[in-house]
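Design a sequence for this backbone.
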C-alpha cells in the first residue's frame, strides 16, 4: 500500500469529514472504499452529538461552524488516525462531521417554533389585565366628587344670610333713636369768657370762689384747679332752661384728672344734684370708675369697675338714671356698673371733685 504525503492525508481527512455516513471514501488511487468500522462508531457519535444538536439551536452560531470546521483541521490529527484504524476511530470525531446532521438540528432551529412560545405572547394577552385597568372604574369611585357636592354644605355659607342679621345692626337705628334723644342742656365752654370763675348758667358750691375757672387746654374747658382737698366742690346747671329735671335723663362729658390728693380722689359728673348732700354722680377715680350717691347726707357707692386711668388724660364718662331710679355708668362707651340708691325726685346736672383737681369739656344733658 502506497504511503501518502502529509498534505494528501490532510485532504483525505477533510474530504472524509465532509461526507455523509452512508458514502464511500475516495481512496488514494481515486477509487472508492467503504467507510471504516470505526465510522459506524462515528455514527453512534452522531447520535450523541446529535443530541447535543438540540443545543444546536445555537447552530445558528453553527454558521460559525466553518471555524469549528476548521477545528476539523485538528481532525488532521486524524492523519494519525490514518496510521491506525483505531486512531481512525478518531475519525468518529470526523463523523462528528455529522455535526452537519447537527445542522439538521437546525430542525431544532425549527424549534425556533419556540416562536410558538412567542404565542405565549398570548400570555401577553393576559395584558388584558388592562381589564384590571378598567378597575379604573373604581376610579370612577372618584364620584366621591359627589361628596364634593357636600360643598352644598358650603352653601350653608348662606349663614351669610345671618350676616343679614346685620340688619340687627340696623338696631343701630335704635342708636339713631339716641339721635332722637332730647338735648336739655350742653356746654363746650368755648363761648364762656376765658379766665372767668363764674361761667354763665353755672353755680358753684363748696370750696373757695377761686377754685373754678375757664381755661384753655387745646380748647376752652371748665377746670377745678384750686385745691385737691377732700372738701366736695361742685358747679351745677342752675341757669339751664327747664331745670331742675325729673324723670329719666343722662349726662355725659369728657373728664380728666389733673391731680389727686389724700382720701378718695374723684372727678365727677352728676344728675339730680340739689346740694352737696344730695346727688347722684359717676366718678373717674385713679383705678377706674365708681358710681357715688349721697341722699340726705347718707352716702352709697357701687364697686369700682377697674379701668386704666392716667392722670392728665381725657376719658368719656356718662351717667344715666331711668324711671325706676336705677343708675347706669359707661366709660369710653363701655358699661361700667349700676347702682339703685334712695330716691331723689329731681335736680340739676353738675360737675364736681373730691380730693382731686380736674377738667371738664363737652358737657351734655339729654332725655331719652
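Sequence:
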Amino acid at each position: 500500500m502506497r504511503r501518502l504525503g502529509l498534505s494528501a492525508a490532510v485532504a483525505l481527512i477533510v474530504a472524509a469529514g465532509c461526507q455523509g455516513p452512508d458514502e464511500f471514501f475516495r481512496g488514494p488511487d481515486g477509487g472508492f472504499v467503504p467507510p471504516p468500522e470505526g465510522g459506524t462508531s462515528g455514527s453512534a457519535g452522531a447520535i450523541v452529538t446529535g443530541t447535543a444538536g438540540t443545543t444546536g439551536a445555537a447552530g445558528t452560531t453553527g454558521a460559525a461552524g466553518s471555524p469549528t470546521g476548521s477545528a476539523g483541521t485538528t481532525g488532521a490529527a486524524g492523519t494519525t488516525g490514518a496510521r491506525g484504524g483505531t486512531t481512525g476511530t478518531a475519525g468518529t470525531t470526523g463523523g462528528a462531521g455529522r455535526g452537519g446532521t447537527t445542522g439538521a438540528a437546525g430542525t431544532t432551529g425549527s424549534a425556533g417554533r419556540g416562536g410558538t412560545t412567542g404565542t405565549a405572547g398570548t400570555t401577553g394577552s393576559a395584558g388584558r389585565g388592562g381589564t384590571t385597568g378598567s378597575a379604573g372604574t373604581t376610579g370612577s369611585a372618584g364620584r366621591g366628587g359627589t361628596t364634593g357636592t357636600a360643598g352644598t354644605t358650603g352653601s350653608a355659607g348662606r349663614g351669610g344670610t345671618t350676616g343679614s342679621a346685620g340688619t340687627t345692626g340696623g338696631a343701630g337705628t335704635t342708636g339713631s333713636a339716641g339721635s332722637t334723644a332730647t338735648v336739655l342742656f350742653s356746654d363746650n365752654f368755648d363761648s364762656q369768657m376765658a379766665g372767668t370763675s363764674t361761667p354763665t348758667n353755672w353755680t358753684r358750691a363748696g370750696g373757695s370762689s377761686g377754685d373754678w375757672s375757664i381755661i384753655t387746654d387745646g380748647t376752652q374747658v371748665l377746670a377745678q384747679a384750686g385745691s385737691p382737698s377732700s372738701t366736695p366742690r361742685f358747679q351745677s346747671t342752675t341757669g339751664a332752661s327747664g331745670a331742675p329735671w325729673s324723670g329719666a335723663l343722662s349726662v355725659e362729658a369728657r373728664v380728666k384728672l389733673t391731680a389727686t390728693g389724700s382720701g378718695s380722689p374723684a372727678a365727677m359728673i352728676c344728675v339730680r344734684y340739689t346740694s352737696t348732700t344730695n346727688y347722684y354722680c359717676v366718678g373717674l377715680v385713679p383705678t377706674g370708675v365708681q358710681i357715688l350717691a349721697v341722699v340726705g347726707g347718707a352716702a352709697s357707692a357701687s364697686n369700682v369697675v377697674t379701668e386704666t386711668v392716667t392722670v392728665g388724660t381725657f376719658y368719656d364718662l356718662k351717667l344715666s338714671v331711668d324711671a325706676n331710679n336705677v343708675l347706669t355708668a359707661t366709660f369710653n362707651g363701655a358699661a361700667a356698673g349700676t347702682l339703685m340708691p334712695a330716691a331723689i325726685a329731681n335736680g340739676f346736672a353738675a360737675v364736681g371733685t373730691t380730693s382731686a383737681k380736674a377738667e371738664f369739656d363737652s358737657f351734655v344733658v339729654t332725655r331719652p
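The chain has a mean pLDDT of 68.
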